[in-house]
Amino acid sequence: MGNKSAGTDFILLGLTDRQELQTVILVLFLLIYITTVLGNVGITLLIIMSPKLHSPMYFFIMNLSFVELGYSTCIVPKMLVSLASGSQSISFIGCGAQFYLFASLVISELYILLIMSFDRYMAICYPLHYTRQMSPRFCVLLVAISHSYGFTDAMTQTVLTFCLPYCGSREIQGFFCSDPSLLKLACGDLRVKQTLILISAAFNLSITSLGISLSYMFIISAILRIRSAEARRKTFSTCSSHLVSVFIFYGSLCFMYLRPSSEQSMDQDKVVTVFYTVIIPMLNPMIYSLRTREVKEALKNAIQRKLTS
User: Fold this and answer.
1) Model confidence, pTM
2) Which of 53, 64, 74, 268 has the fewest CB atoms found within 10 Å of its own CB?
């Protein structure tokens, strides 16, 4: 990297330049982040402490909570500090670290959601073989592969992005270091980087969405063969939380990365970015807590034990 690129801070312009909104945004995002931490840590501890939740499905939910708490934490605290102090700068190294952690965890989440759909496919379509096939060792291996691939892919994207020359404006239109914002500041030949990020995004989104779609095609087919309407409803309810998470997460990522960028889309980009970096990590613990009977029962039992003690 050239000294000119590596020696200068970036400026995070944030969500708005209107001073009267800074305090409102600070308080709002602080409350959202606290809720995110409490929700994800809470559901993780609940799964660890409740023997009834020691199953592959909840092991993957626990890992999903870890990932979402991770990429929310690598972005939101820095934004809160900037709003509170008024300092909008972020170092070149800090920007690279934030970029890398966020990208790796988002890619990991794509594949964890894919693994969760495979888990539901095995549980519904092959219930007699489920316990043997989805062994603890196999589940850990699947999660480890997801994280390994995520960190490897993100490292490639990070190196390509931060080897570009940044010789003009250092003002990032947003509240964290992301590919679309950084590429607008680079002044070198961007064709290779733009092509590779499009290939990476299209590959990861297509592979995982295709795998999830195929899993649910077989799941729906198996559910339709169940004669009892009540049994069909109960079986499908085990998939509903996962489907809600998939639609929300994939919808925002596809809107962000698989469409042409333009100056007019900048405000839309900020809204979508806030949604999948700040709102989704807060919502998912609520989705799994409110829509999953076992989690609600475990939470109720934990509260009763606490009150009794």
Assistant:
1) 0.87
2) 268
For the chain, how many residues are written?
309
How far apart are the C-alpha atoms of 236 and 222, rounded to whole Å? 10
- Helix (H) or strand (E) run with residue 18 in it: none
Return the residue matching tokens 């995002």: 29
The helix or strand, by DSSP H or E, that contains position 106, with its residue range, turns out to be helix 92-125
Q: Token digits for 12? A: 């995070």
- Provide the token pair at 292: 């999953």
Report d(CA 126, CA 215) in Å as an integer: 12
Residue whose C-alpha is closest to residue 250's, from 289, 216, 290, 296: 216
pLDDT tens-digit map of 161-210: 888 888 777 888 888 888 878 888 888 778 888 888 888 888 998 899 99
Could you tell me the end-to-end alpha-carbon distance of the chain, in angstroms, rounded to an integer?
59
Within 13 Å and on the Cβ side, how many CA atoms surround 246? 21
Cα radius of gyration rounded to whole Å, the chain:
21
Question: Are 71 and 102 a contacting pair, CB within 8 Å?
Answer: yes
CB 164 within 8 A of CB 188: yes
Residue of 59, 113, 68 lying closest to 244 (CA atoms): 113
Cα→Cα distances 101→104, 202, 226, Å: 5, 20, 44
Separation CA 309–CA 304 (nearest Å): 9
| Single-letter amino acid, residue 258 | L
Tokens of 282: 């807060």
Cα 120 from Cα 287, distance rounded (Å): 17
